[in-house]
Write a structure and sequence with these properties.
The chain has 253 residues and is of the alpha/beta class. It contains eight helices and nine strands. It folds into two domains: 171 residues, Flavodoxin domain (Rossmann fold), CATH 3.40.50.360; 53 residues, Alpha-Beta Plaits. The structure holds flavin mononucleotide and iron/sulfur cluster (2 copies). One iron/sulfur cluster binds next to α8.
Length: 253
């Protein structure tokens, strides 16, 4: 068994690693950003795939990874873990449908509520204590899911037609184009930026460059919020206008 994930701010990585720890402690997890991920994937038949849900859809970077490696999925048995701030409907279902088209068998699905990573929007903001409790609840849910998987009765959250309808009518119909392509909407306040280069190093899309000691965004942002949550000067925004509360999974452990 192997774990793979895309994770902007660490939630999905944490959930995949914790699930593997409870189910198959020798199994390793790889980010889709890891240069060895395809080589490792080819060797394994049983896969746990984790990712965050964006507008009840997949992050564009993950869509491209699944599509660009379509032959890799044939014959694989894949358990899906979708993380979200509140609601996704069919968070696992969106990947399941795509992977089935490529010949994979979906063995189950798990939905986990985790701290919201949208640093510059107030809507789902919780205190650090509340976020810690949320992570504890997710851990307990993962533990139960691992037991069920071992018993041959894996959870099937997000996979049936009712979840599909919930995802469609709950969100996707209202945000049809949000994750269809990469965005050019990332903003960096040059008055706040000190040119430390942290965002440049962290971006999975190499979407930020340094020019004359100032960070400059490009047009291939996958909206992962990693740079925004890490910038020491709170200079980066995407959906909102002001950074309200930075945090990554390490803060809630
Ligand atoms: C652009 C964007 C869209 C999101 N859309 C949703 C959503 O539709 N429903 C939801 O519950 N959470 C949503 N979230 C919250 C993330 O899914 C959640 O915080 C996730 O656990 C982040 O995982 P990560 O740390 O692995 O990146 C969204 C986050 C981002 C950045
Ligand atoms: S992390 Fe923030 S301060 Fe550092 S280069 Fe990027 S935008 Fe500028
Ligand atoms: S620019 Fe920031 S939010 Fe966009 S993909 Fe890169 S790290 Fe993620």
């Amino acid at each position: 068994m192997i774990g793979i994930y895309f994770s902007g701010t660490g939630n999905s990585r944490f959930c995949v690693e914790y699930f593997l720890k409870k189910l198959a402690p020798a199994a390793k997890a790889y980010s889709i950003e890891d240069e060895n991920v395809c080589k490792e994937l080819e060797k394994e038949k049983e896969i746990v795939l984790g990712y965050p849900v964006y507008y009840s859809s997949l992050p564009k970077i993950l869509q491209d990874f699944l599509n660009n490696h379509a032959p890799l999925w044939k014959g694989k048995k894949i358990y899906l873990i979708a993380t979200m701030g509140l609601f996704s409907g069919d968070g696992t279902g969106v990947a399941a449908r795509r992977l089935k088209k490529y010949g994979a068998q979906i063995t189950g699905g798990l939905h986990l509520k985790m701290p919201d990573c949208i640093t510059d929007v107030k809507l789902l903001k919780k205190s650090t204590e509340e976020n810690k409790k949320m992570v504890s609840r997710a851990k307990r849910k993962i533990e139960r899911a691992a037991v069920l998987y071992k018993q041959g009765k894996p959870t099937e959250e997000g996979l049936n037609v009712l979840y599909h309808l919930a995802g469609l009518f709950g969100q996707r119909l209202y945000f049809p184009n949000k994750t269809k392509s990469y965005t050019d909407q990332l903003k960096i306040d040059e008055n706040k930026c000190i040119g430390c280069g942290k965002c440049v190093k962290l971006c999975p899309m190499k979407n930020i460059t340094l020019k004359q000691d100032k960070a400059v965004p490009g047009n291939t942002c996958t909206m992962c919020y990693r740079c925004i949550n890490h910038c020491p000067k709170q200079a980066i925004t995407l959906i909102g206008k002001r950074v309200l509360q930075q945090g990554t999974i390490e803060k809630y452990m």
